[in-house]
Design brief:
The complex is a heterodimer of chains A (288) and B (331).
Chain A lengths: L1 E4 L8 H11 L6 E4 L12 H13 L3 E5 L7 H11 L5 E4 L2 H9 L4 E3 L8 H8 L3 E4 L7 H9 L6 E15 L3 H5 L18 E4 L5 E6 L2 E9 L4 H7 L3 E4 L6 H12 L15 E2 L11
Parallel strand pairs in A: 1-2, 1-11, 2-3, 3-4, 4-5, 5-6, 6-7, 7-11, 10-12
Antiparallel strand pairs in A: 7-10, 8-9, 9-10
Chain B lengths: L1 E5 L3 H9 L4 E4 L17 H12 L4 E6 L8 H14 L3 E4 L2 H10 L5 E3 L8 H11 L3 E3 L6 H10 L3 E9 L3 E6 L1 H6 L3 H4 L8 E6 L2 E6 L2 E6 L15 E3 L2 E3 L7 E3 L4 H7 L3 E4 L6 H20 L8 H9 L6 E2 L9
Parallel strand pairs in B: 1-2, 1-15, 2-3, 3-4, 4-5, 5-6, 6-7, 7-15, 14-16
Antiparallel strand pairs in B: 7-14, 9-10, 10-11, 12-13
Classes of the chains: A alpha/beta (288), B alpha/beta (331).
């Protein structure tokens, strides 16, 4: 089983991004996903910066995949999407059907991200005919459903499981970070920069419930499938995705490396912003 | 421009048709559609009666089959597609790639519409569904501004249907897991947001609490009205304040935009609310029928009448309405 580093879901400044990927080049992950998937106003890295980072990581031996925006509204966003899909060097993760359309038209193989809503093998077959190489199942699928899928997977398609991170649960036209600051989205003053892991929403009795990340709503709790690594491998999962967070990343990646190698991994309870959960995997509410 | 009205029950269907809906949309009584609630939707007998009522008046029926089957449920969705084709519905509204693929290959004469649950917000995404499955129409998620809708229509390969009125999903439809995160069932998999079996109302010293899957969604004081615990409409804490962190309860109402939607070439206006009462359907369909007729007769001089707005305000969630994403400032 390979380890992958998912796209950074938060808004980090350019120098933080540079330092992060310099370090990541030395971590035991085989695949690195790069690019902005949440909000097109986040521009600490432009297309050329991402490409430069991609080449550096490729030189360091990583497989690089460029990830695309999940919610497309404006023509300018389609323009950026066309540039990414036509990059000519790296595989692309499609997070919306617009990307699937552009990539399949161009005869490019692609990865299907978790927002493509692939809930049954027949859907996968539709995309397999159009160049699907790898897919990330919707986050709410349980292990039994995944096991059913793995029995019926189209030839040559790999499965990548979202194994660590605050889970993206919903996308909106509205920005909830701007809303919290009483700012219009058009003049958000880039407040997401102040929240490198999003900010936690607690219920009125203090339970950490959701995390706000601009237009994306996440789980406050970190999905943690570290204890399920061996079972995932037995089922035939090909890759485990670690979704980046602001701190402790090297330690988290190392824990997964050990687990995949069959060694006893260290405890990660203290490495999550607000605690962990794995309910979806067990067929329960995600928060459990 | 068609008026497409919701029919969660046979009385609602009749109310919609009596008040002048061009089309009613409905679902089977199971999890194959995105309004899978107890007491709603159509079994065989009611469906036969409903179809007869609609057809004898020269109107149309669309069947919503817009959830996402998982491997073990596939046969139920497949059978539902076959049944829809057999019944000769005027269109099948679907979202899942597998369901669309099966319908297009097995029943090539069954017209397909892409459901709002398909989350297609750009003409490139619409091209995909059009080229793959020959969809004729798509329902847009409630996330685009009016300018963006107009731009999309200029390039769209298919007809476009938009939501005109009803409860407002503030998340992109088809991409919201909030319900399953708290309560295990989501619109995508089970066709329901905030399943009733997971809802609790509890009177406490601190106020009336509403919970979903045990999670405290809101707590209201005396004199405040407690809403149904939908996660996106709850009050939560951050930055030392308790507030509607995502959205206040409100309804979408686009009557003001009707001439622009018409000029842009929108094929149909959809009314949300298969879970609402026949009285709601009657009231809303009546107003929108009058409004669309007035708009088609004289688009330049169209203005929503005060009595229309008042009537719609009375049936709105939270008694407030908004233009939603159509208005740039909302985005």
């Amino acid at each position: 089983m390979k380890l992958t580093l998912g796209p950074i879901l938060y808004y980090w400044p350019a120098d933080t991004l540079r330092r992060f990927y310099e370090a990541a080049a030395t971590w035991p992950v085989e695949v690195v996903y790069l690019g902005e998937t949440v909000c097109s106003k986040r521009r600490s890295f432009r297309f050329d910066d991402w490409m430069e980072t991609a080449r550096r990581l490729a030189e360091a031996g990583k497989e690089v995949v460029l990830s695309t925006l999940a919610l497309l509204e404006a023509e300018s966003e389609l323009k950026t999407l066309r540039r990414i899909c036509g990059n000519g060097e790296f595989l692309v993760e499609a997070n919306d059907m617009a990307a699937v359309q552009l990539l399949s038209k161009a005869g490019q193989p692609f990865v299907a991200g978790p927002t493509l809503n692939l809930y049954n093998p027949r859907s996968l077959e539709v995309l397999a005919r159009r160049g699907l190489k790898r897919w990330v199942p919707p986050l709410e699928l349980d292990r039994q459903t995944l096991a059913d899928f793995l029995q019926a997977l189209p030839e040559g398609v790999e499965t990548e499981l979202f194994a660590w991170g605050r889970m993206p649960l919903a996308f909106s036209a509205r920005c909830y970070t701007a809303r919290a600051y009483d700012l219009p989205k058009d003049d958000c003053q880039y407040r997401c920069l102040d929240h490198p892991d999003g900010f936690t929403l607690r219920t009125q009795e203090g339970q950490p419930f959701l995390a706000v990340n601009g237009i994306q709503t996440q789980s406050a709790l970190t999905c943690n499938l570290l204890p399920e690594t061996a079972e995932a491998a037995r089922m035939g999962i090909d890759l485990l995705r670690i979704s980046p967070q602001a701190h402790h990343m090297e330690r988290i990646v190392e824990a997964f490396r050990r687990a995949v190698a069959g060694e006893e991994p260290p405890e990660l309870e203290k490495r999550m912003p607000a605690g962990g959960c794995n309910g979806y995997w067990h067929g329960r509410a995600g928060i459990r | 421009m068609q008026l497409v009205a919701p029919a969660g029950t046979l009385p609602a269907l009749k109310a919609a048709i009596d008040e002048g809906a061009d089309v009613v949309y409905l679902g089977f009584k199971d999890q194959t559609n995105a309004r899978n609630f107890a007491g709603l939707n159509f079994d065989e007998r009611r469906l036969a009666e409903g179809l007869d009522y609609v057809r004898s008046r020269g109107r149309q029926v669309y069947l919503a089959l817009n959830t996402y089957p998982r491997p073990r449920g596939w046969k139920l969705w497949q059978a539902a597609v076959d049944r829809a084709a057999e019944l000769g519905v005027d269109a099948l509204i679907a979202a899942d790639l597998g369901v669309l693929d099966y319908a297009a290959r097995t029943h090539p004469r069954l017209p397909l519409h892409l459901s709002v649950q398909g989350s297609a917000t750009s003409y490139e995404a619409l091209r995909f569904y059009h080229e793959q499955f020959g969809i004729r129409r798509a329902v847009l998620p409630r996330v685009l501004s009016m300018n963006q809708v107009e731009h999309l229509l200029e390039h769209s390969p298919v007809e476009i249907e938009v939501f005109g009125f009803g409860s407002l999903c503030i998340m992109v439809e088809g991409r919201c897991l909030l319900s399953s995160y708290a309560a295990g069932q989501s619109p995508n998999t089970h066709g329901c947001c905030s399943p009733a079996g997971e809802v609790r109302y509890q009177e406490t010293a601190a106020g009336l609490e509403t919970r979903l899957g045990g999670v405290l969604v809101d707590r209201v004081g005396k004199g405040e009205k407690a809403g149904y615990p939908t996660i996106c409409k709850g009050r939560y804490q951050a930055f030392d304040k308790t507030y509607y962190a995502l959205e206040e309860p409100t309804s979408l109402n686009t009557l003001d935009l009707l001439p622009r939607l018409h000029a842009a070439g929108v094929a149909a206006i959809k009314i949300e609310g298969r879970q609402r009462s026949p009285a709601y359907v009657r009231q809303v369909t009546r107003v929108w029928r009058q409004a669309i007729d007035a708009c088609l007769a004289a688009p330049e001089s169209f203005h929503p009448r005060p009595e229309w707005m008042q009537a719609l305000g009375l049936v709105s969630e939270g008694q407030q309405t908004t233009l939603g994403a159509y208005h740039r400032t909302w985005q």
